[in-house]
Amino acid sequence: MKRLVIWIDRLTDIFAYLSAFLLIITIVLIVSNIALMGLTGKSIMITDEYSAYMFAGFVMFGLAHTLKHNGHIRINVLTSRFSLNVQKIFRIYALVVALVFTVYIFYYSVYMVYQAYVYQIRSDTVAQTLLWIPQLVMPMGFFVLVLQLISEALKEFVR
Question: Which pLDDT score is estimated for 74?
């Protein structure tokens, strides 16, 4: 069990690095477009579209890392008044509810990507991007989040 938790935490860290990399690419793309506009008056036509795709990847790949480091919003006004054992039960319950919800979203994000792939749906932009390609970040991010929720639940059981 400990090896599984370590493996999941490492995978989460890898996705956090990918998240940071996508943010850097987004910044470089936007700054390049601004510089090009200032110097030549011309634009990189795909800047808006691709920076949005990369920002979505940045968010999705960072979800699990945020959970791992307790970065998500938690409201402990009520539970902080209970004993440590009751608080632990509430944390496990919250993790299980989040896990069920995230598995549901993961399933439908896979279905969305599948539909976009089958019907070869393209963006209504100059690039005509096949939408299943940027949409892949959603099931990937939710899958890693599911794994991290499992890891956090296992950590709670061990405590």
Answer: 82
> Where are the chain's structural domains?
2-158
Structure tokens at 34: 């601004």
Q: Considering the entire predicted model, what is its pTM?
A: 0.94
Rounded to an integer, the average pLDDT of 140-147 is 98
**Three-state secondary-structure class, residue 128:** coil
> What percent of the chain is helix, strand and coil (3-state, nearest 5)?
80, 0, 20
76 pLDDT higher than 90: no
Structure tokens at 57: 């990847």
Token output for 112? 């969305």
3-state secondary structure 28-74: HHHHHHHHHHHHHCCCCCCHHHHHHHHHHHHHHHHHHHHHHCCCCCC
CA angle 6, 100, 115 (to 5 degrees): 100
Helix (H) or strand (E) holding 116: helix 84-118
What local confidence, expressed as pLDDT, does residue 159 receive? 77
